[in-house]
Specification:
139 residues; alpha+beta; 2 domains; five-stranded antiparallel beta sheet; two-stranded antiparallel ribbon; 3 helices; 7 strands
């Protein structure tokens, strides 16, 4: 386990998650949806030396939260919450203080909204509108 910028993380370049980056098929799906960017010039074929990169984003899947890096390495957040981007420090603080306790339970969508609002309020590089997408995965 390593300690990432956002808290304890499983993985990294040499860890178990880092050893299994997002597969080529998953990269194609992400690139088809506009998430990945090919470094080859338009109209040219991509060679083996040319890589693609995507933006950094979070993916929650079956009770686990993953930080997908721009090189498609995946790290799992061990605290159960994470943030990326310009306002990540403020968002992490908001998520930490809104963690469920025996006395208080805040719905996950509301916690995310609160973290985004806090980041927007305290960081000039963060602005809405914000879109949180929840997909139903067949069991």
């Amino acid at each position: 386990m390593e300690r990432g910028a956002n808290g304890p993380m499983e993985g990294g370049a040499d860890g178990p998650m880092g050893a299994h980056p997002v597969s080529a098929i998953e990269r194609m799906v992400l690139e088809d949806r506009g998430i990945g960017v090919s470094h080859a010039e338009e109209g040219e074929k991509k060679t083996n030396e040319e890589e693609s990169s995507g933006g950094q984003f979070l993916v929650g899947f079956r009770g686990h939260l993953f930080d997908i890096q721009s090189d498609y390495q995946a790290q799992e957040a061990l605290d159960g919450y994470d943030a990326v981007g310009a306002g990540l420090e403020v968002a992490i603080g908001s998520l930490y203080t809104s963690c469920p306790t025996q006395e208080v339970m805040i719905e996950p969508r509301r916690r995310v909204a609160m973290a985004l609002e806090a980041a927007q309020h305290h960081n000039a590089g963060v602005r809405g509108p914000f879109y949180v997408e929840v997909l139903e995965v067949p069991v």
